[in-house]
Amino acid sequence: MSINASTGLITGTPTTAGSTNVTVRATDSTGPSGTTTFAWTISAAGSVTVTNPGPQTGTVGTAASLQINASDTAGGTLTYTATGLPAGLSINASTGLISGTPTAVGSSNVTVKATDSTGPSGTTTFAWTIGAAGSVTVTNPGAQTGTVGTAASLQINASDTAGGTLSYSATGLPAGLSINTSTGLITGTPTTAGGNNVTVKATDSTGPSGTTSFTWTINPGGGGCTAKQLLGNPGFETGTASPWTATSGVISNDTTEPAHSGTWDAWLDGYGSSHTDTLAQSVTLPTGCTTYGLSFWLHIDTSETTTSTAYDTLKVQVLNSSGTVLGTLATYSNLNAATGYTQRTFDLSAYAGQAVTVKFTGTEDSSQQTSFVIDDTAVNIG
């Protein structure tokens, strides 16, 4: 670095890290002069990066240890400092190791700084949560059963050595039931039959928590059942799909694929090219019935010659009101081709008390047609 004698401008490129006391003198040409002195610190050409260790947790009374790592291109010696550490913890200024035994419950935002002896520094910040010295254990109540329409009550019990206040939560409860977050009492009236995997969690206000899981099976209610057939337009004789939803062209009276009865049927696929057809209808299965049966007549013909590979398929599935597949009842293919119709029947009792969709999906590959022809469908309850 140098100073311009005429202008007083100091310029240049520092070549050495360090601190210097600089004195500048200005002299008038007639003789008088004045001086000033100041410090000038030159840092090394480099940087320090501190690796973030991510959120940390610990427990009062349990020793903790966390190594802080940093990369340094400045070439000097690193020293470490930290602010916001949980009570009872400290950082080794030379190694960056945080250690100690936490003494208080709480959450802290910790900032660690690593400084190179030549000047550059870097920081990182992370959360450190200290929980109480204790534990929560939730007593498993065992497998539970209930009935649609009949009030249910189950007290969840938990032991707690952490010393705070317990709160409760639950997932997977049968529809119609809920848990009291303060007492752990599960109450309500089940609305839907079926099996449920329930998990209850009890959390101490100081941090510790415990969980338990059990099954809760809700059986159909005994409120009586009126025998009837639930599907609309079951034989497609209206000549339109409604109340079915179907791919265009599926509802057919083409005599190439004659109906099982009447003149109309649902003809899925048969194109001999990559193609998918669907046919679906939603029904609500009431509780309290003894039988829940899906039936339909199915004819399959194909131009495929294989006797071992299912190139084209028809899936029969049950979906919930959100469109999630609850079960695949059957999968047919070109391997099931035969003359005439065959009646297929399935038990839907597992879905009692639910609004479900019966769906047929026919899928063909790129060559050789397979036709899946459906007629005279029914969902009978009784």
Explain the overall architecture:
- The protein has no helices and 33 strands.
- The protein is mainly beta and 382 residues long.
- The chain folds into four domains: 2-42, no CATH class; 48-131, Immunoglobulins (Immunoglobulin-like); 136-219, Immunoglobulins (Immunoglobulin-like), CATH 2.60.40.10; 228-381, Jelly Rolls (Sandwich).
- The strands form ten sheets. Strands 23, 25, 26, 28, 31 and 33 form a six-stranded antiparallel sheet that branches. A five-stranded antiparallel sheet has the order 24-27-32-29-30, with no helix packed on it. Strands 6-13-12-9 form a four-stranded mixed sheet, with no helix packed on it.
- The mean pLDDT is 93.
Which terms would index this structure?
mainly beta; 6-stranded antiparallel beta sheet; 382 residues; 33 strands; 5-stranded antiparallel beta sheet; 4 domains; Immunoglobulin-like; elongated
Short description:
The protein is mostly beta strands and 382 residues long.
Task: Write the SSE topology.
Elements: E1 2-3, E2 10-11, E3 18-27, E4 33-42, E5 48-50, E6 56-59, E7 64-67, E8 70-72, E9 78-83, E10 89-91, E11 97-100, E12 106-116, E13 121-131, E14 136-138, E15 144-147, E16 152-155, E17 158-160, E18 166-171, E19 177-179, E20 185-188, E21 194-204, E22 209-219, E23 228-229, E24 245-246, E25 251-252, E26 265-269, E27 275-284, E28 292-302, E29 313-319, E30 325-333, E31 342-347, E32 355-364, E33 370-381
Parallel strand pairs: 6-13, 15-22
Antiparallel strand pairs: 1-2, 3-4, 5-8, 7-11, 9-12, 10-11, 12-13, 14-17, 16-20, 18-21, 19-20, 21-22, 23-33, 24-27, 25-26, 26-33, 27-32, 28-31, 28-33, 29-30, 29-32
GO cellular component, one term: membrane
InterPro entries: Cadg (IPR006644), Cadherin-like_sf (IPR015919), Ig-like_fold (IPR013783)
Region (Disordered): 1-33
